[in-house]
Structure formats: C-alpha cells, structure tokens
Amino acid sequence: MNLATIQQPIEVEFKAFKEYFATLFRSDVPLLDRALSHVSRTSGKMMRPMLVLLTAKSIAGSVNDCTNNAAAALELLHTASLLHDDVVDESPMRRGIPSLHTLFSNRVAILSGDYIFSSALRAAALTKNVEIIESLSYLGQQLSQGELLQLQLQQSGGFSEKNYIEVIRNKTASLFATCCRFGALSVGADTAMVDAFTRFGELLGICFQIKDDIFDYYNSAEVGKPTGSDMREGKITLPALYVLNNSTEPFAVELLAKLTEGYTMNDEEIDQLITLSRECGGIEYANKRIEDFRAEALAVIPPGVSEQLRAALTQYLDFAISRDK
User: Whole-angstrom Cα distance, residue 95 to residue 243?
Assistant: First the structure.
C-alpha cells in the first residue's frame, strides 16, 4: 500500500502541518533542545495526524487551525507516552535509533516526556474547543487504564478474547478513535458524524493492534522484533489466546490451567506456544478477526464522504492491516 496515495487528498495540508509540528520541538534550554531534536529524529510516518486531517477534509472539504492544533496535541501526547514506555520497558531502541533514555538518562527522558505532554495540553488549549480538551484528557486516562488493565489481567489470569479486545481498545484503538473524533470536532461536525468517525477510528485501531501482535509470532529478520517478545513480557495475544482456549492439545490445556494460576512461561514453553499458534489456526483466526473489524469499519463511513476521500480512508485502513512491520 502506497502512503503517497493515502496522503494525496491532503498533500498540501499535511505538508503545512509537518512544518508547524516541527516548531513545537524547540526549547531555549540547551539540554532539552538536544533531547527534543533527538526525539524528532525518531518520529514515524505521522499516521495519526494524517488521520485527523483526512477525517476533517472528508467532512468539511478543508482543514483549519483547530484541526492542526488538535492533530499536534494527539501526536505530542503519543510521543510523550512512547518516551515513558521506553523507560518502563527498558527499550534500548526506538525505530532503529537509540532511545532517549539510552543516550541521555531515565531522568532526562521522563522530564522530556513531561514537557512534551504539557505541550500537548497547550496545543489542545489552542483549539479553544472544550470537547477536544476533554477528549484529550480522557485519552490520557484510557492509555494508562489499558496498560494497567493488561497488567492486572496478566496477574489474575483473565485470558479471554473479550479481555484482550478491551485492553487494545484502551491501549491502541482509543488513540485512533480520538484522531477521527478530533478531525470531526475541529470542523464542527454534528454528533452523528462525530460518533460515526470515532467508531471508524476505534475499529481501525483494533485492526492495527491485532496485526501488530501477529508480528510477535515471526522472527526479527521478517518483522523487526524478536519472536515472542510480547510473551516474554507476560502478554498473551490473540493467536495464542485462540489456541489456548480452543485447542485440545495436552500442552495447551495444561498451560492454560497453569497460566490462570499466575504461572510465568519459560522460553521453551513460549517457543512451543508460538509454534502451536502458527500450526493450529491461531494466526488464521487473528487474520479473520481483522477482516471482521475491517468490514465493520468500512460500513460506518458516512455516505456523504467523497469517493476520493473514502478511497483514502479505505487505503489507510488497509495500510494498517497489510504493513509488514
């Protein structure tokens, strides 16, 4: 899937947004300025601001300053959360570049994350839209709740698809849902339109995370991260959940019983569960669920959206599903 095709309807607007966003990563404090400069180097494709702009233009035919500030607030909040995650997870790299805490220190990384988070609040305030400010605050709560819910379920043995979807709804889908919500709110869309696009973003985010979790079942040369890295952190994702809850293989039955009692898998068991997930339908089931959520997402796009922008939204969704890392 070609990103240029997705960006084409908002090419001018996206270029202007990136120029504006770059101005937010500067400081008069030399240490902070160096840290911000490094963080800007690890910026990804800015898929989330792109979704804000696409949503706004799909509804109103244009974007405005409120749209840009809302998109900036989201990307800043996301960036701040990644800095904190890298410290918590002790991740040495971010998108192939040494993470901030590796180059500087945990203290610098956390304080830089706090600064970027405050910048997100400031950008939200510049929208002068109370619903956007409230939604950003709620998003911050959802992201934290998702992480803590996942930790709680790991400790209590809540290994069900329902619990898994609830975790990723908070941890990942909430961010995509808020992108679409901000795009709609920024151009004054009515409640029905806001709700429809918010649901589209949520379903897109669920697809995105399930696809991301599938990567854990393949080697690092193929997808850029070690096989089983999620499981080694205690995260049981959809392919393995399917096998654990549906397979009659003695290993799966016994392992599920132990996991529900708070058991921690060893490396050999993780490798065996990965193999079982790949050979006994876990990957196929996860891909089927992605297709289910994709179909639901396409169905909620309002009928008034132009063909060009509908195609861009569809391609955005398919990019999230078909990416290889």
Answer: 31
- Nearest CA to 282 among 324, 318, 323, 231? 231
pLDDT tens by residue, 164-186: 999 999 999 999 999 999 999 99
pLDDT band at 191, cuts 50/70/90? very high
Please enumerate in sequence order all residues whose Cβ is within 8 A of that of 114, keeping only pairs 6 or more positions apart, or say none.
80
CA 126 vs. chain centroid, Å, equals 24
Query: Distance between CA 307 and CA 281 in Å, rounded?
Result: 36
Bridge-partner residues for 93, per DSSP? 98
Three-state secondary-structure class, residue 303 = coil
The helix (run of H) or strand (run of E) holding residue 98 is: strand 97-98
Q: Please state, in angstroms and rounded to a whole number, the distance separating the CA atoms of residues 56 and 54.
A: 6
Q: Which of 68, 51, 187 lies closest to 124, judged by CA?
A: 68
Is residue 159 within 8 A of residue 256, CB to CB? The reply is: yes
Other CB atoms within a 10 A radius of the CB of residue 22 amount to 11
Note whether 71 and 53 are within 8 A (CB).
yes
Cα 96 to the center of its chain, rounded Å: 18
Is the whole-model pTM more than 0.85? Answer: yes
